[in-house]
Specification:
Blueprint: H1 19-27, H2 40-52, E1 58-64, E2 70-76, E3 90-92, H3 97-110, E4 132-133, E5 136-137, H4 140-144, H5 171-180, H6 195-209, H7 213-225, H8 236-240, E6 245-246, E7 252-253, H9 262-265, E8 268-270, H10 271-280, H11 288-297, E9 301-304, E10 307-309, E11 314-318, E12 321-329, E13 334-340, E14 345-351, H12 358-365, H13 380-398, H14 402-406, H15 419-433, E15 436-447, E16 450-459, E17 462-470, E18 476-482
Antiparallel strand pairs: 1-2, 1-14, 3-8, 4-5, 6-7, 9-10, 10-11, 11-12, 12-13, 13-14, 15-16, 16-17, 17-18
Helix pairs in contact: 3-6, 3-7, 3-11, 6-7
């Protein structure tokens, strides 16, 4: 928790200060006790504008000042029959779960239960063969820093229900994938964001703790912090306060269940609990858990000149400052948590739609980071060009021209959207869809800086929406196939 330091004074906590400290505080107008964030009216206007522009359904924004005081504003629609948005509203926090997994690792290392250098194979059943390369084994630290060489998702991931894709992926399937997988690159050589890797880390830590992932996180993080509205399995109280998630087109979508890869994205929480979690990560540590949190923030690998990674947490460099952060996303929710460890300020953004709002979090923490501009509607010719490019790209995939399709990958995801990954993905989808008969443009929108191009695909086994995420230059960042309206 936050402790008084360098003259900081929290109005929410009873502390004893000396006369010289009081003198310092009164001598610096608007200094250490000044307000970092805009007024409640200013914060509300920020999120109101985002909702009214159609770039969110509902947003709850929480900020924490350097003195530990917090404020929460909300705006928008919680969904049909859901309680009004506020600090108690529960959201799926998606990949922010990974930050909890990183802290769990640091905590278990501090207790001597595991080591950062432990090979993952040491923590799995003997019958599971953990992939390695050149004699180098994947360690727990490699998983936590996204440098394991494992892919974003396993190639035997083939959900029966596309609207709840992780629900039926089993531990046995994960073990089968690991035992048969050949790494594409050397362990530790390159950053590659992997839901599989972080899910596996949560799994092996839970095994080492002799508990489920949820039990381990609750015992070691949630209960000590009093985060009673955070967990994997919804309690009746959490379910009562659960917001409805919406996709990018504003349609209500189901919640996700993530049993096997829980450490990658299974947690649900509300703003009240997330501000408690934020506070515990900032300031001078006062417990073993909080010391483990600080360990999880330490940069272990550089991703780029502007970005590093600790134990799951990413660290963004902005001028002379830095922001420790993670975001999350499921079918119907996008979330963000971040803080400046030196300034001692932070923010949490929880949304119940598929539109990202990371820029709001970054901007209120450090105004040098600009807000994402509202997308301008594309002219008819530009939309037609996107439809044509998306149709041509999907046709390449369905015809098995994976190398040609991979050559059009969006630069940021080129390492993940390579020919082998496309071949694996179509190997799963193709038999379910059957032969392609026709593709036609349906609708186009902009989300998270990318064009979402929706095609109507008629296949031998039915008609489906084919969603292709594209840059303005027609490069492809990803694609999904789902039933119309699903």
């Amino acid at each position: 928790m936050r402790q008084p330091f360098h003259g900081g004074l929290s109005p929410a906590r009873r502390i004893h200060v000396t006369a010289p400290l009081w003198a310092l505080l009164f001598m610096i107008p608007g200094g250490l006790t000044g307000q970092h964030f805009p007024s409640d009216a200013g914060l509300t206007e920020l999120i109101r504008t985002r909702v009214e522009e159609g770039r969110a359904v509902g947003i709850v924004l929480g900020v924490m000042e350097a003195d530990g005081s917090t404020r929460v504003v909300s705006y928008g629609d919680p969904g049909p029959d859901a309680r009004p948005l506020g600090e108690r509203t529960v959201f799926e926090i998606g990949s922010i779960t990974k930050a909890f997994t990183g802290i769990l690792l640091a905590d278990m290392v501090a207790r001597g239960e595991v080591s950062f250098s432990d090979p993952v194979a040491k923590r799995l059943p003997e019958e599971v063969t953990m992939p390695s390369r050149g004699g180098t084994q994947i360690t727990l630290l490699d998983l936590a820093t996204q440098h394991s060489g494992l892919p974003r998702m396993p190639d035997n991931f083939s959900p029966a229900d596309q609207s709840n894709p992780y629900a039926d992926y089993s531990v046995e399937q994960m073990y089968d994938f690991l035992s048969g997988h050949d790494l594409r690159r050397d362990v530790g050589s390159q950053y590659e964001y992997s839901n599989l890797g972080m899910g596996l880390l949560g799994h092996v830590l839970a095994r080492a703790a002799g508990a489920s992932y949820e039990e381990a996180v609750r015992e070691r993080i949630l209960d000590p912090l009093g985060m009673s509205m955070t967990g994997v399995t919804l309690t009746p109280d959490q379910r009562e306060w659960m917001a409805d998630g919406h996709d990018e087109r504003g349609r209500v979508v189901p919640l996700w269940d993530v049993p096997t890869l829980a450490g990658a994205g299974a947690l649900r929480s509300n703003m009240k609990d997330m501000l408690t979690f934020l506070d515990a990560n900032v300031g001078v540590s006062a417990s073993g858990l909080e010391r483990s949190m600080r360990v999880s923030h330490e940069v272990r690998e550089d991703i780029s000149p502007e970005m590093g990674i600790g134990l799951a947490w990413h660290v963004r460099r902005v001028g002379d400052a830095s922001i420790v952060w993670h975001n999350g996303g499921t079918a119907g929710f996008r979330t963000f948590i971040g803080f400046d460890p030196v300034a001692g300020v932070g923010a949490v953004v929880l949304t119940n739609s598929g539109h990202g709002a990371d820029d709001i979090g970054f901007h209120v923490i450090n105004p040098e980071v600009p807000l994402a501009p509202a997308p301008e509607p594309l002219a008819g010719e530009a939309v037609e060009g996107l439809y044509e490019a998306a149709i041509a790209w999907v046709t390449l995939v369905t015809q098995g021209e994976f190398s040609a399709a991979a050559a059009q990958a969006y630069p940021v995801v080129a390492a993940q959207l390579d020919a082998a990954a496309l071949e694996r993905a179509w190997g799963q989808l193709g038999p379910q869809l059957g032969e392609l008969r026709s593709l036609a443009g349906k609708e186009q929108s902009v989300t998270q800086g990318l064009n979402l191009v929706v095609l109507t695909g008629v296949f031998a086994n039915g008609t489906f929406d084919v969603q292709v995420y594209m840059g303005d230059d027609h490069s492809v960042a990803g694609f999904f196939v789902r039933p119309p309206g699903g």
